Amino acid sequence: MPEGFDDILLVGTVFVAVTLAAFWLAMVIWAYRDMRSRSRDPLAQLLVAIIVSLLSVPGLFIYIMLRPRATLSETYERALEEEALLQEIEERPTCPGCGQRVQHDWQACPNCHHRLKKACVNCDYLLELPWNICPHCTTSQVNYTSDGTIATRSRHVKPAEPSPIDAKWVASQQVERH
Q: Which of 31, 41, 48, 125 has its CB 3.0 to 4.6 Å from that of 120, i.e. a possible disulfide?
């Protein structure tokens, strides 16, 4: 054997040993970090690192087969999406008559014809059925009883004072009529 062959063999063996040790350490670190991204349990994280460090490549395959499917961030994103969908579903009103979903600007349910809202007698703004005054124009609303007669109220809402611009418009309308 040549004299330098033993040195080359020694260098090659050391190189292979260092590479395998670095690969082994990288597997342990990767498995530990991967488990940290998938579980908050420190015992599970440590157990994975120990299994991969003791069993090396077979331990890594065992971990890959048994690890949780989703990371914590994926689970969190999925939970946020589900919560947003549930909130969207809950925000949409339903008809008290038939339970079908209705739009917030519908006056009646198209399915069962149940009355949902009423229009203001002055500005046509949609009002909730029990409201006696329009919040936009402060017009007092006429309420009908179940037999179709006008219900009287014991309490009257004082209309808002007209602004100077409204007073001028009213005066101009009165002049035009005469």
A: 125
Return the bridge partners of 128, or none: 117
Amino acid in position 74: E
Domain ranges across the chain = 3-72
Cβ(116)–Cβ(122) under 8 Å?
A: no
Give the pair of three-digit tokens for residue 32: 């530990």
- Dist. CA 5–CA 76, nearest whole Å: 58
pTM: predicted TM-score of the whole model, two decimal places: 0.50
| CA nearest to 32, candidates 22, 46, 11, 12 | 46
Strand partners, 140: 133
Q: Residues 24-74: pLDDT tens digits?
A: 999 999 999 999 999 999 999 999 999 999 999 999 999 999 999 999 999
User: How far is the C-alpha of 96 from the C-alpha of 91, rounded, in Å?
Assistant: 15
CA neighbor of 67 nearest in space, from 86, 90, 41: 41
